[in-house]
UniProtKB/TrEMBL annotation:
GO-annotated biological processes: intracellular calcium ion homeostasis
InterPro entries: NAD(P)-bd_dom_sf (IPR036291), Sc_DH/Rdtase_CS (IPR020904), SDR_fam (IPR002347), SDR_family_member_7C (IPR052148)
Pfam family, one: adh_short
Keywords: NAD, NADP, Oxidoreductase, Signal
The keyword Secreted belongs to this UniProt entry's keyword annotation: no
Protein name: Dehydrogenase/reductase SDR family member 7C
A molecular function (GO) term: oxidoreductase activity, acting on the CH-OH group of donors, NAD or NADP as acceptor
SUPFAM superfamilies per record: NAD(P)-binding Rossmann-fold domains (SSF51735)
Top-level taxon: Eukaryota
UniProt family annotation: Belongs to the short-chain dehydrogenases/reductases (SDR) family.
């Protein structure tokens, strides 16, 4: 089985989710390597890929990928291995700030990394899967592809776009027996901490701004990706009850959701002014 674990980098120094995605990529690589997959690793720097290569002690072929050369890398992989059985898209970049404070240029960079990166690679690999009438494509996305969180507008927009694309792709690939899956965690954290007690409205608001309490560990994400591939799950939401409730409320009671978010912002601004 040939599997590509990918990560796209734009070479920007803005705040991003490098640590989170590096951790997920490493854990996914180790989990699938242990399961006997032959890996093709793609990432930001050759040094990090070599370090992971050494850790895996495998026949993995590290490839450094930039969004401008995705098609060439995909062609090289197909020429070398003949096919990709499983493609895992794990590219992500994010920035925090008010909408008016984020430049349009940065908005575009976020969209390039989180949306155009995964779909460009997917489109490059897809014809080979279609010709073979088999394959699996996995998108590791975010709960912010389901709900918009304040001060994360560009990130949430890109994740919503990715979900929309892969939902459509899933339906279109049905006739070719190609599985398309999305795995959406809340936030990635390197250690566990139980949710703090409080009323349900406060808990939903705390979910927005104290993300560690509701995060998932990279190992959990990797294991869930493996389970998703094994069982060909279509969509997975990795979230505790409170984040799940937020998605439910946004879907069925949008006005209530908007009111909670608005009140939370007012409370946050008031706290900042008092401090």
């Amino acid at each position: 089985m040939i599997m590509a674990v990918t990560e796209i980098c734009l070479g920007t120094k803005e705040e991003s989710s490098k640590v989170e995605n590096d951790a997920i990529r490493k854990k996914c690589s180790r989990v699938f390597h242990a399961g006997g997959a032959r890996l093709v690793l793609c990432g930001r720097t050759w040094e990090k890929l070599e370090a992971l290569y050494d850790a895996l002690i495998s026949v993995t072929d590290p490839s450094v990928v930039d969004i401008s050369c995705i098609r060439d890398v995909a062609k090289e992989i197909l020429n070398c291995y003949g096919c990709v059985d499983i493609l895992i898209n794990n590219a992500s970049m994010k920035v925090k700030g008010a909408v008016q404070s984020i430049s349009l240029e940065l908005d575009k960079k976020i969209m390039d990394a989180n949306y155009f990166g995964p779909i460009t690679l997917t489109k490059a690999i897809l014809p080979n899967m279609i010709s073979r009438r088999t394959g699996q494509i996995v998108l590791i996305n975010s709960i912010q592809g389901k709900i918009g969180i304040p001060f994360r507008a560009a990130y949430a927009a890109s994740k919503h776009a990715a979900v929309g694309f892969f939902d459509c792709l899933r339906a279109e690939m049905e006739e070719f027996d190609i599985s398309v899956s999305t795995v959406s965690p809340t936030f990635i954290c390197s250690y566990h901490r139980p949710p703090a007690p409080g009323n349900w409205e406060a808990s939903i608001w705390k979910f927005f701004f104290r993300k560690v309490s509701y995060g998932v560990h990279p190992v959990e994400v990797a294991e869930e990706v493996l389970a998703t591939v094994s069982r060909k799950k279509q969509e997975v939401l990795m979230a505790n009850p409170i984040p799940r409730a937020a998605v439910y409320i946004r879907t069925f009671f949008p006005e209530l959701f908007f009111a909670i978010v608005a009140s939370g912002i007012r409370e946050r601004l008031k706290t900042e002014e008092e401090s």
